[in-house]
User: What shape does this take?
Amino acid sequence: MRQSPDRARRAPPADRVPGSAPRSVSSRAPGRGPRASRGAPRRTQRGVTFLGWLILLVPVAIVVYAGIRLTPMYLNYMRVARSLERLSEQNPDAQSITADALRQSLNKSFDIETIEFPTTKDIDIHRDGEGWVAIADYQDVAPLFGDLSLMVQFHKEVDLP
Assistant: This one.
């Protein structure tokens, strides 16, 4: 078999002396040898480390926990809004109704819905022209952790006929 002119001129590898037996691969130190000196990529770690998972999951866990703390407040607001809407449907005659009668009707609705906050005293019911207006404007606070809390402001206005 004849060698090409390029192969004949090449020098033997640096770690091999002509006439000697080749070294075993296991005798080389990792990252040493002719390949490492040429800038060949080293074997890298694949996947995410434990510290990487912590850095990724801690913010996600805080957001999920905040959502868990906020959910009851929004559900309560939806019950308050539903009670105010029912109040507008129940009282068709706005001329003969009083603010106390509206407040009593709202109090019954709050009892049925088991709404403890805001109370009916916190709901502003006043006459606006020929009709009545009920306004629920309140803030609710949920403790998050330590001295950190979440505060949400709710506003619902309903025109009563």
